[in-house]
Amino acid sequence: MIPYFDLKKYNQSFEPGLTEAVQDVVSSGRYLLDSAVGRFEQRYAEYIGTDHAVGCANGLDAITLILRGYMELGQIKPGDSVLAPANTFFATILAITRLGLNPVLVDADPATGQTDCSLLEKALTDKCRALLTVHLYGRCSYNEQMAEFVQKHNLLLIEDNAQAHGCMYKGHSTGSLGHAAAHSFYPSKNLGALGDGGAITTDNADLANVVRSLANYGSSAKYMFDYAGMNSRLDEIQAAVLSVKLSRLDEDTKKRREIADMYYSGIDNPLVTMFQKAAEGEHVYHIFPIFCAERERLQNFLAQQGIQTLIHYPVPPHRQTCYCSQKWAQVSMPVTERIHATELSLPLNPALDRSDISKIISAINSFK
Q: What's this model's pTM, rounded to 2 decimal places?
């Protein structure tokens, strides 16, 4: 069986470094908000190219903390709207609604799966204060049209960089392109912890300070609380693990791109389509999606060939029970809905070898 992602095998490739890093933290007796977190925050800020990185508990909290931070700074208020892609993981939209903000959904570009920037002007309302862009699948969603739009309308640009660690746009890392960015270190991400973890990156010192306080109950000093915050801290063990893995991120990204190139050049089944290939450096292939009208039959066929695949994601946010009946019962996002109805994710990670990819390609091409 070729697994979608053999995480155990992948993590073993970092040994003995991972075990040593964890043992160092265990031996230190310091498990929260100490030197390992500080080192990782500094290294990650340098890697992304921002002045600040603030660790937190997970990617959902990272988006929430950014939005909440701007609310505390007076740049967003309850009832305001945030432009967001319809084609995204549920957490992107949840972060908006949990704060009493209104998501304004924008359909996807059928060629890339990213926000269709030609629809932004039509979607804009007078209550919109920010655009939350998602580098979904590991592909850069930012472009000059988006940059001109947010500047023209004086909007905050917030990046959801949960799937795109190491992705670039014209020499700059995703996570440094907007006013602030949210990052997830869920174990299967391109930069993954051994549990949950997240971070916020920004050049805005005021936002960084507010976010850091909010993530620690709203505290600015021990037992002193400036805000009614939350408990969302990156722990020392996860920070130490992430520092080990960060040192090899670019090398592993190169392997991901090589596998993607094999898929693009090798898959030629007329029943299967793929997104348009991204420009050089603008994709890190956290997910490699293909599309088939008979997705379930293809998935079962590949499973019979010993190939595990996943679906990202079977139901878009605006069709989820918690939102459909309340907000978007009559909303249609045709491109997003087609993507979610036909998408199938192929194995793509540094734990695979070329023979695995060749087998997957042959199996897909033999599907009838």
A: 0.97
